[in-house]
Amino acid sequence: MRLVLALMWLLHWLPLPLLGRLGEGVGSLLFLLIRKRRHIALTNLCLCLPQFSEQEREQIARRHFQLYARSVLERGILWWASEARLKKLIQVEPAVPLAAIAAGPTILMCPHFVCLDVAGVAVMLESSLCSIYTRQRSKVFDQALRQGRSRFRPVKLFSRAEGVKPIIRAMREGLPFFMLPDMDFGAKDAEFVPFFGVPAATLTAVPRIAASTGAKVIPVIATMLPDYQGWKVAFHAPWDNYPGEDMVAATRHMNAYIEQQILQAPAEYFWAHKRFKTRPPGEAGVY
Q: Residue 92, SS3?
């Protein structure tokens, strides 16, 4: 792992167009070699985008592998490049919502697009934050990741096992909660809510925390700019009257919103994750 990190550090000095093309080449190779992940991605696309032809879904999956591998190599820029270079490469629209964050508890809801780390960096260039963190298997990589994510401002990272109490405490201290809401962590604290029409075990943390803290929910979508120019981080308007009384309906609203964003950049969503790993009682597995 030290060798991998050393390679990432060396590569981060390359111009982004060259690094991006290198990453896409690696991704094309991985699409051919990693059959298991290719199968997961194609299964997800078949379930979620049946309106696309098989050939179109395969093209999206291949492009997804290219962009995901590219995002991994480009992470070196996020971890080690200068603040000036990052600000040149990250296009923020319209701006990091500092006034909204200062006004009260805030959840920055960031779905799993391949360059979501860019969204975190965009926030940390302007503000501290808190988030949930999964410890990496490699201690060396874990340390590099933590240092890379907190090098501009202090960041409070909590494990999922700690529950929501420390998050709520940090939010009441003025830190926005950077929340990744759309992975399958099992049935605990989740509801089976449609995701592209397929029941998906979906964490209800966003509406529950918003209800208990009075937080506003601001969606954050990170995508790649064309022609290797960098990345765009879009902060959308806070959701009105959210979450309301019905937590399941609020979770369904969240999934529907994420679906709309995926359709605008389908290859950039994290299709290689087993989004439908947990099935409703009595339903067979899909993978």
A: strand
